[in-house]
């Protein structure tokens, strides 16, 4: 029997898709109101954590029910899908930005605005080779390669889980220590020493935290008033340390006195994890058992977006680039900003529903056989 989808997983992953879209528009005043401006973590943690949970449901069950080889095959199939999504997304983005430059007569303004200039004008051959080997990973296109590494680690984690539930958890923590210290960097440009922005060995910790909760390697926390109070205190202190609210009452900004490694996004600093876990626990408590408090049309739309996260994420990247061009031409007044966001949100929702429709393979349901000329044609007897 197919396991029902978790309302909380789909809702919060869908919500994260909208927040990520807002964050990817440069010089966007709406950015001032996303969760990242009130603490150490942001929507990236939501996306990665929920992806870990979804992967545990989609792939962990295959390992459990069909065996290791079938589980490995399922992971390879998903890696194939994500890899070509990444390649297609990059090529589409380059073509789109170059098209905007040609259409608007802006030379190479928009191509250079997302750092495609060096790739197109100087290092196209090495850039394409790097693109296919994931050694050319421009900023804004670095989440899917990170996700690929995490997917590739699932068979290792499932094998370790046979030793005991502690084994994959310990291995994940060990890899995080290596990654957060800056070791084993992945190259991001053939023509420089720049590494991937998101260190996958560090970020896999939040991915496999979500994975472990679904697999039962880590027990679900109880809804306890003391934990709610503690997590609320963490969020309040984090907000005071990362916003101007703290400076207004004499609290210095966190970057002024805390080690940067604790807050670094690329190597997933420890304070980001603490802040995210606190936020996730409060969301978990607020949603109620199995998300029974998550109801209504807005919740349903977010759930649909969360169910098609890969397609929506790819579409969101292209929409954020197109939005940046529109706002460059119209200015960032209140009305253009509102129009761009509402139209883009509608497009993200449309992508989710259209992809879901195609995945439902409607042409296979209630199929009616249409008679052909062969049905009325007589053939000589073979007797």
The structural class is mainly alpha
> What is the radius of gyration?
24 Å
> What coarse outline follows from CA principal-axis ratios?
globular
Binned strand content: under 5%
What can be said about the biggest beta sheet?
Answer: none
Low-pLDDT segments: none
Rounded mean pLDDT is 89
Distance between the termini: 49 Å
Given the structure, what is the number of helices?
16
Could you estimate the helical fraction of the residues in percent? Answer: 55-70%
Would you report the number of β strands? 0
Q: From N to C, what is the helix and strand string?
A: HHHHHHHHHHHHHHHH
Features:
single chain; 65% helix; mainly alpha; 383 residues
Could you explain the architecture of this structure?
- The protein is an all-alpha fold and 383 residues long.
- The protein is 65% helix and 0% strand.
- α1 (7-23) runs parallel beside α15 (309-330), α2 packs antiparallel against α3 (68-104) and α7 crosses α9.
- The longest helix is centred in the N-terminal third of the chain and has 37 residues, at 68-104.
- The protein is globular.
- The chain starts with 6 loop residues before the first helix and ends in a 24-residue tail after the last helix.
- The mean pLDDT is 89.
